[in-house]
Amino acid sequence: MWIAFSATFKRQLITMRRAYPWSFFIGHILDGVYITIFAYLSYHFIFQGQLNTQFVSYTGTSDYLSYVIMGGVFNSFAVSLLMIVSRMLINEMREGTLEALLLTPSSRLGYFLGAAIQGLMRSGIEWLAIICVGLFFGLNLVAAHLALLLPIMIVLCFALFAQALVLGGFMLAFRDTYITQNTLFVIMTLVSGVSFPPQFLPDWIQGLSLIMPLYYGLELMRSVMTHAAPSSDILYHLLSLSTLGILYFAIGLLFMKRMEKSVLEKHFG
Amino acid sequence: MMKMLTICQAEMRKSHRHNFNNRLIYFSMFLWPIIQFINAYYAFKPFNLGQNSPLSRFVPVNKLGLFLITGCIAYIFFWSLVQSAWMMGYERQQGTLELILLTPASRTLIMFSRAAANLIEAVWMFSIFAILTIFFMGGLHIAHWWLLPFAVMVLLLSAVVWGGFLNTIFLFSRDAGFLYTLFEAPMEFFSGVRMPIMAFPIWAKVIAFVFPLTFVLTILRAIVMDGKTLGSICIPLIELAIILIALTAASFILVRYAEKHAKETGNLTFF
Amino acid sequence: MLEAKHLHKSYTLKEKNGWLSRRKQQIKAVNDLSLTIEKGEIIGLLGVNGAGKTTTIKMLSTLLAPTSGTISIDGINAVKQPELIKRRVNMIAGGERMLYWRLSARENLMYFGRLYGLNGNTLKQRCRALIDKVGLTEFADRPVERYSKGMKQRLQIARGLINDPDYLFLDEPTLGLDAPVARQLRVLVKSLAKEKNKGILLTSHYLEEVEELCDHVSIIEKGHLLLQGTPRRIIQTIVKDRSLIVVMKTLDKENWHWLKQETDKLGIHAQKKETNEGTRVDMKATFDMTSSFLALAQKRNLQLIRFDAKKPNLEDAIIRLTEVHD
Ligand SMILES: Nc1ncnc2c1ncn2[C@@H]1O[C@H](COP(=O)(O)OP(=O)(O)OP(=O)(O)O)[C@@H](O)[C@H]1O
Ligand SMILES: [Mg+2]
């Protein structure tokens, strides 16, 4: 597994250096930046800083801009990571290398992890870029539970990785990337509390946020980076996120295995 | 004109065949915009939307829904054409673009016909959704009934010109996906789809006036929300007309140039 | 030894008819096929388009699971233990697929090598050796997207050899290659079998290639085995007709009558035609008639300008076979 991991990591690194996917890169950064600018303009120029009292009671903070900018930052991060991992196999299929890959007796998990860790470098750069922009538009970072930052980040990445496996399975099943990924992303952005707390939504839509790692990730990240939340909340969210991650991981691995087989059968050429 | 109709018909038949098989259009032109519309609506929820809301300086709070849905529908018209231009990338990859340029039909005509043909195909679903939504929300205020078809015509015409221009631009570019991301959000953002541009600071207003969609939206909203008459919107109408003429002229010049460039470098197939 | 017994493979095609209902349709791509490949042997798999060659190769290389039947390679069950088999086999397909275009030749080989569990210096050396072997030394560090078709194909071969497989499956490896490159490839394949003692299965639509390389040939049609044997045997059993074309300056009526009578006696069917070269006689028989005709010609002292004895080849055999079965 280690060799497959490092080989894939290196391969992706070379590919990235040789042909950087600029349009995805810029796209993800812009997505985050637009959410930021939108929040900034509405907050200052349309509403003159006047918030709804419900917002404060739902979120426990009156710092609207930090709330939304964090939403934009992590939404882009999640989208980027999900895309990188989930599109791996279907890209191999399109480029015609899937068979050559499956001919080898290598570990599939190592392969995906290699891609994910390499992708993390890319997503990380985008993430930093958006945060930097956010700082200009009123993102206030306070280090509330700094020690928790790293573990939370790791759990979030794991959960997103696991979700990406499931998403990748669907992509292989539908033989499509664009529709599948974007349908997930528009729903994810709506329900995960990116630019408004999901409590505003009708109950039945709100329920969807419970299966989105991004929702928990955002709650957690906000409570360690922008405003202090009670530790019991943090613990609860961290636990939910881990459980969700493990669940997705198990489903994702099984699903991928199945789809691999069926792709080989249905794929001409 | 007859020529344009034939080409238009051919393109329409082709894109119908094409899109009917791929479900993309149902998602990107119907499902996603609806979810994004809902998202836009709820994004206002954290703010003060009460009686004394600062929003009412630009839009009456009770017409926020109408404001957003008119924005969305106009946006969809324009957006669908960005997408159809993006599809040119695929035609280029499959080499069919080269085949099209092999025919004697006028290039610019093809670009505009393509836009017109794809427009109808793409927007009818969301249009129905929007009309139903407006119907249930109420709040329409129109001075003369004939201004409504007039507004629709303005919307259609400017969308086609915009689409033809985009098709031409995408003739050039190797990585059309890049332009796609560059056009997607700014257009939604700065044209006042989700926010009244009157509230923007100067720098944002300057960006706003790059997009013809801004003027179309101003006109559309003035007609359906504020009950303005033709006389009182003639200034934005003239501005829009100037922009459309400029875009058409630019398309003509660019097509010439693109074809010349392609002949020299053969880069139409180089992807 | 690789042994495949009673392989079956059927694909399920789901066809949409109407909005929701779907009709399932079974396509039998391979139907009761048995094969053996010994080490050091080159086996040819022939058949028209869609006969099931690629499907067979994919099953042998564990990419596809057979619907029924067994495959065992050196005593290991390939269906049950694909991981073990994958180390011992590899597959090379014609065309430009199965390579990472953004990587260079060396990077491609290094990547695949690692996926086979190779590492460090062994891998580096093997990559270098393979690159030299397929003659890509000069271009080793150039991205594959800038390679020509032939170069990509050669790199594919290097990729197929990266794990030093005992059995190698080649699916139309010379597709689209020019004559000298195809020739080099054939030499390489031959040496792999004869010197390195690898078992090789080869499909190709170039029959001379198969005739030249293969020790045994299996001809399949619609997934079913039609014939198996050495190329010579197959030609002999299928193509009974041989032809002989002779051109003479003149052939008078009397001589022609005599010739006709004599050939009829021997069971040769002869026909005369006047051409601007002279008089041409076309003869057909089920045996080699060269010597008997020469004896006749000597008797009457016939002056021959041209003498063509056409040897039947595998191509005739295949065409004959498929004609019979259609
Ligand atoms: N993935 C698939 N799904 C359904 N049917 C398939 C699939 N792959 C192949 N077939 C069918 O199985 C049959 C055998 O195909 P196969 O690709 O093995 O033929 P082949 O002998 O390699 O042909 P060619 O000489 O054209 O390469 C064909 O009828 C083909 O249509
Ligand atoms: Mg084949």
Radius of gyration of chain A: 19 Å
SS summary, helix count of chain B: 10
Tell me the domain tally of chain A. Answer: 1
Low-confidence stretches of chain B: none
* Average residue-wise pLDDT of chain A: 89
User: Gap between N and C termini of chain B, in Å?
Assistant: 34 Å
Could you state the oligomeric state of the chains shown? heterotrimer
For the largest beta-sheet of chain A, the strand count, sense and barrel status come to: none
The ordered H/E elements of chain B are: HHHHHHHHHH
Low-confidence stretches of chain A: none
In short:
The complex is a heterotrimer of chains A (269), B (271) and C (326). Chain A is an all-alpha fold.
Q: How would you explain this protein's 3D organization?
A:
The complex is a heterotrimer of chains A (about 270), B (about 270) and C (about 325). Chain A contains twelve helices and no strands. Chain A has one domain (about 1-270). Chain A has helices at about 1-20, 20-45, 55-60, 65-85, 90-95, 100-105, 110-135, 145-175, 180-190, 205, 215-225, 230-265. Chain A is elongated and about 60 Å long. Chain B is an all-alpha fold. Chain B has one domain (about 25-45, about 60-265). Chain B is globular, with a radius of gyration of 19 Å. Chain C is an alpha/beta fold and about 325 residues long. Chain C is about 35% helix and about 30% strand. Classes of the chains: A mainly alpha (about 270), B mainly alpha (about 270), C alpha/beta (about 325). The interface of A and B includes residues 34 and 55 of A. The site of magnesium ion has 3 residues of chain C, from helix 1.
How are the elements arranged and paired?
The complex is a heterotrimer of chains A (269), B (271) and C (326).
Chain A: H1 2-18, H2 22-46, H3 53-59, H4 64-86, H5 88-95, H6 98-103, H7 108-136, H8 146-174, H9 178-191, H10 203-206, H11 213-225, H12 231-266
Helix pairs in contact in A: 1-7, 2-4, 2-7, 4-7, 4-8, 4-9, 4-11, 8-11, 8-12, 11-12
Chain B: H1 2-21, H2 24-43, H3 64-94, H4 96-102, H5 107-137, H6 147-172, H7 176-190, H8 202-208, H9 212-224, H10 234-265
Chain C: E1 2-16, E2 22-37, E3 42-46, H1 53-60, E4 68-73, E5 76-77, H2 82-88, E6 89-93, H3 105-115, H4 120-133, H5 149-160, E7 167-171, H6 179-194, E8 199-203, H7 207-213, E9 216-221, E10 224-229, H8 231-238, E11 242-248, H9 253-266, E12 269-274, E13 279-285, H10 290-300, E14 304-310, H11 314-325
Parallel strand pairs in C: 3-8, 3-9, 6-7, 7-8
Antiparallel strand pairs in C: 1-2, 1-4, 4-5, 9-10, 11-13, 11-14, 12-13
